[in-house]
Specification:
10 strands; alpha/beta; 7-stranded parallel β-sheet; globular; binds fructose -6-phosphate; Glucosamine-6-phosphate deaminase; Rossmann fold
Length: 248
Amino acid sequence: IHNMVFSSSDHASQLVAGEIADLIKNKKDKGENCVLGLATGSSPINVYAELVRLHKEEGLSFENVISFNLDEYWPMDEDNVQSYHYFMHEHLFNHINIKPENINIPNGKIPQEKIIEYCLAYEAKIKDVGGLDFQLLGIGRTGHIGFNEPGSHYNSGTRMITLDHLTRADAAPSFHGISNVPKKAITMGISTVRSARRIVLLAWGQNKAEVIKETIEGEVSPSVPATYLQKHKNTSFILDTGAASELT
Ligand code: F6R
């Protein structure tokens, strides 16, 4: 699917899940693995719900899927309900037949002195399995993709970052207060995301309208890292009418 504005994010999510399912099946027919880059947050929830339905009701198999999540808070225990590790199992992995050893999520408990080495290994593992076939993205109000906050370099790789104040404020309700939101995270970089052969960014609701306008119509700039996607040849922006409402 190409850039598109939908009146219902549910319907849009079903189409995106359908594209992912077709990719998984095509790869399977060729005897190949399908490497998926996955996002957390509210935006992809219905895509995952539809993938679970396709697995349960239509026999979609995830046996040939290898997944890499974009990011994780740091420090963060994987069994903490706020962790992205927990989120992914709750919304997707616990309900499908992906092999546990094929699931990759940045480790929020990696000791500080091992972070650089750990991030390089995460990056190397993506390359070793053939690179990302498909990257699913949401977008933060700062213009972040993954947790690549304003200032992120076009050629950045997987690394530890400091979360923007606005990002922490947006996460505050689910952490019962901004003081409980971690100050750091591990994220795939802009170059990691750009290396994906296909990218689909989801944005729903009026509160994303301003950043979506900047992302699609603004100048490419590190101050809105999502604008880097303008240079990627196979990216689609999937929006609802609220998120698209500021576009000219
Ligand atoms: C999540 C991620 C973030 C979110 C973004 C939007 O893994 O990388 O970039 O996609 O913060 O979050 P929601 O979808 O909750 O509005």
